[in-house]
Amino acid sequence: MKTYSFEFLVGLLVILVAGWFLIGVLLKSEELSKLGHVNEYLASFDDVSGISIGSDVKLAGVTVGRVKKLQLDNFSYTAEMVLEISSKINLPSDSEIVITSESLLGGSYVSISPGGSDTFMQENEKFTYTQSSLSLNNLLQKFFNR
Is the pTM for the entire model greater than 0.85? Predict the structure, then answer.
């Protein structure tokens, strides 16, 4: 009889952990869906280290979108990125998009620096000004090789 009660407790624990995990996933997906209607924009980078599908897109430190798609352009050997940004955000056409990190040990995200143009980007338009992620290892190598 003890083996059945032990198996019951283990099964109950597994169900509780699975439920806790499911609730966490649902809460995260609700947080991501708060963007509402989104517009897609394109950007090309030489290096997208630290960025993956679902990475945040921030403007002034506020999350306004996410990375939808990453792929390699076989002709120019650049990383092509598709971004989903809230349609409530009007981006000047000379805005710059930069891959930056939260801290030395933290994750990376895509940051938008709005420009000063009077015209705004249209959906599926490509960012003209981009800056790839900086590699701490490459910077240290350049410093020590001097």
Answer: no
Burial of 19-31, coded b for 16+ CB within 10 Å and e otherwise, reads eeeeeeeeeeeee
Range of the domain at 59: 36-134
Distance CA 13, CA 60 (A): 43
Going from the first residue of the chain to its last (146 residues), give the mean pLDDT of each consecutive group of 10, the final group possibly shorter.
Answer: 74 87 69 70 86 86 88 89 87 87 75 86 84 69 71
Query: What is the rounded distance in angstroms from the CA atom of residue 51 to the CA atom of residue 37?
Result: 23
Residue 145 lies in a domain: no
Asked if residue 142 is part of any domain, the answer here is no
